[in-house]
Amino acid sequence: MPPAQRAKNMKFSLKDPTQFFIATDSGCILHGSRHGDRVSPRRYRKQTDSPGEVIHLDFSPFGLPCFLAGSSDGSICLYGLTQGKGPFH
């Protein structure tokens, strides 16, 4: 059985408050819905295998379909809401 993940931060989408994003200590970001609706992608992760925990999430204040994730290793990744991998580090 894989080790359990711990939540480090949680944010609701500014565009759709029924959707939430959870930063984890395993370095990935989980995406879910309060009403059990299917979401895509269900998980976001870095393109590189750096071991840092995701400790902070923040959405674009301008309504753009993206969010930033800050990690304990000092990296910041920009994710598109429709892509599972961060295009910029």
From TrEMBL:
One term under GO cellular component: cytoplasmic dynein complex
Identify the species of origin.
Patiria miniata
Q: What is this protein called?
A: Uncharacterized protein
* Alphabetical list of InterPro entries matching this protein: DYNC2I1, WD40/YVTN_repeat-like_dom_sf, WD40_repeat_dom_sf
Q: Which domain of life is it from?
A: Eukaryota
Q: Which GO terms describe its molecular function?
A: dynein heavy chain binding; dynein light chain binding
Q: Which GO terms describe its biological process?
A: intraciliary transport
